[in-house]
Amino acid sequence: MRFRTSPSPAASTMQNRSSDDLQREYDLITRERNGGHNALSAINAQNDIARELERRDR
């Protein structure tokens, strides 16, 4: 298994988006994953969003 050591390229654009927008995207990915769509890119994006939201809460 390979672990990423750097955020995805999309992570840098997340800093320009509101927390509400990021939360809506996170929820959308969750619904897609619950529907059986588990693309690795979506999982990585969701992890990046979660990290950014956690960083903002600090």
Give an overview of the whole structure:
This protein is an all-alpha fold and 58 residues long. It contains 3 helices and no strands. The longest helix has 18 residues, at 40-57. The relative contact order is 0.19. The model has no long low-confidence stretch (mean pLDDT 84).
Order of helices and strands: HHH
Count of individual beta strands = 0
The proportion of residues forming helix, as a percent range, comes to 55-70%
Q: Tell me the number of helical segments per DSSP (H or I, 4 or more residues long).
A: 3
Question: Descriptors for this entry?
Answer:
3 helices; mainly alpha; about 60 residues; about 65% helix
In short:
This protein has 58 residues and is mainly alpha-helical. Helix content is 67%, strand content 0%.
Element layout with pairings:
Layout: H1 10-14, H2 19-34, H3 40-57
